[in-house]
Write a structure and sequence with these properties.
Its main location: nucleus. The chain contains 1 helix and 4 strands; from the N terminus they run E-E-E-E-H. It has 106 residues and is mainly beta. It is rod-shaped and about 95 Å long.
Length: 106
């Protein structure tokens, strides 16, 4: 009877065999150490900073940006200053003020 080697798991990113000395586990799959990186920023991941969505790996920061809550206040750290002058809303003033202007027509 001929010897048949056991089938090793395939890496979902590159499709090659993953051996136990080089494997990383996430999302119930085995990945190569070099393939175990964020799909957006290509940062190498470890078990602490990995997040998975539909078979794709992300670092915690990119996962929050892509799949986290949307809207003002989400994804921005405390104390972040936005330099947006509101040009997309028709603001042409070079000086921004939080004082309401009287006599504005809506």
């Amino acid at each position: 009877m001929p010897f048949i080697a056991p089938e090793s798991a395939k890496c979902p990113k590159c499709g090659k065999s993953v051996y136990s000395a080089e494997e990383r586990l996430a999302a119930g799959l085995k990945w190569h150490k070099t393939c175990f990186k964020c799909d957006m920023c290509n940062k190498l991941l470890d078990s602490v900073n990995v997040a998975e969505h539909e078979g794709h790996l992300f670092c915690k920061i990119c996962y929050g940006r892509k799949h986290g809550p949307k809207g003002y206040g989400f994804g921005m750290g405390a104390g972040t200053l936005s330099m947006d002058m509101g040009a997309q809303f028709g603001n042409t003033s070079s000086q921004m003020s939080n004082v309401p202007q009287t006599g504005m027509q809506f």
